[in-house]
Design goal:
Helices cover about 75% and strands about 0% of the residues. The chain contains 18 helices and two strands.
Length: about 375
């Protein structure tokens, strides 16, 4: 299919052809000059040209120096300061700032800086250099920084700000919520219980070891086999409680009974004294003795028959059980309390069988058919 001839194409073809002819003609005309420039005859001319070029460069450097000197003189002149003041006092700064905002120049520059991989690499490199680390360490260890921080903390502004924060309702509300939070109470309770449990556990372990130590020689005297030793983890293979642990538990119970009796007697005596002055003294003494006996009976028999342990026994993790491994009934508890009283009245000689008996029973245990065991070993298979 034949293409239509366009006048514009004809003109372009003519221009291209004329250009080619001009280039060819120029090469032909300049050929003798190129040959002459490459010949030995042109060397003096080239040297002269280089000399002229050096002179031109020197003149240019000198001219730049002169321009710099003149510029410094102009900028140092008082008139330049007046001109700058006049420019800054005019509308030019506002116009420049408005142009920067309209054309988003700052945003473009920040975006370009943040997206520059080279800048990110330089920052990472600077962080990882030892020089930066040393510089930071020197700054932190410098006395000047310490003095600046101390002055800042002791300044009036810091005290005022601290006082405002402490007096602010928001701070008081936050402090009230923290102090009344269940988490804080649970943490404090847990810490207190943990400390008390550690003390009791340490005392119990020491007393259990003492149980074994104080009965070794009496068992040797009566030709009894040695007790099982304490295992490495601190637990005792023998489930029956010894003399030292039982004695400390009994002392704690005696102190508690005395406190309960004295407190109750004081309160009752104070109330009774308001309406009646009891006399004679022997009658009062008899009433007090009977009351003390009732308190002791209620204390020991009540705890033995209901919980199987008194508060003192619970503190040292002891338990009294019958032959079936359960807490004794009320009748058995009364018999055991009677035996305990007799053992004490016999100058505590009723406790001596604990040192040689295989089940560490005292007089009250023989009478009531009970044994005292460590609470963590109070199992029927362990006491059978």
């Amino acid at each position: 299919m034949a293409r239509a001839t366009s006048g514009r194409n004809v003109v372009l073809g003519l221009v291209v052809t004329t250009g080619r002819i001009g280039v060819t003609t120029g090469r032909v005309v300049l050929f003798p000059a190129r040959v002459l420039a490459r010949s030995p005859l042109a060397r003096p001319l080239r040297g002269r040209a280089e000399s002229l070029a050096e002179t031109g460069r020197s003149v240019g450097v000198d001219a730049r120096r002169r321009v710099e000197s003149v510029t410094e003189d102009v900028l140092a002149a008082p008139e330049a300061g007046h001109v700058v003041d006049g420019v800054l006092a005019g509308a030019l700064p506002e116009a420049v700032a408005r142009a920067l905002i309209e054309h988003r120049v700052v945003e473009r520059v920040v975006t370009e800086v943040l997206t520059s991989a080279e800048l990110g690499g330089e920052i990472v490199s600077a962080r990882e250099t030892e020089r930066t680390e040393r510089l930071v360490a020197q700054v932190l260890a410098s006395p000047a920084l310490e003095r600046v921080l101390a002055d800042a903390l002791e300044s009036r502004l810091t005290l005022d700000l601290t006082d405002r924060i402490v007096r602010s309702p928001a701070f008081r509300h936050a402090l009230t919520q923290v102090l009344s939070s269940p988490e804080l109470r649970a943490a404090l309770t847990g810490q207190s219980m943990s400390f008390a449990e550690e003390l009791v556990a340490g005392l119990s372990q020491r007393l259990r070891k003492l149980d074994d130590v104080i009965e070794r020689r009496p068992r040797r005297w009566f030709h009894r086999a040695p007790r099982p030793q304490v295992v490495p983890d601190g637990s005792v293979r023998l489930p029956y409680a010894g003399l030292a642990t039982r004695g400390v538990a009994l002392a704690v119970d005696a102190a508690l009974v005395t406190m309960i009796f004295l407190t109750g007697t004081a309160v009752i005596g104070l109330v009774v004294s308001l309406v009646w002055n009891p006399r004679p003294a022997p009658v009062v003494g008899t009433v007090i003795a009977v009351a003390g006996l009732l308190v002791e009976v209620a204390y020991f028999t009540g705890f033995w028959s209901t919980a199987g342990q008194t508060p003192g026994m619970r503190l040292l993790r002891l338990r009294v059980v019958d032959g079936a491994g359960s807490q004794p009934q009320l009748g058995r508890s009364l018999v055991r309390l009677l035996g305990l009283t007799v053992a004490i009245l016999l100058l505590f000689t009723g406790f001596l069988p604990v040192l040689v008996d295989d089940r560490r029973r005292a007089l009250q245990d023989f009478l009531a058919g009970t044994v005292v065991v460590y609470d963590d070993d109070a199992r029927p298979d362990a006491i059978a």
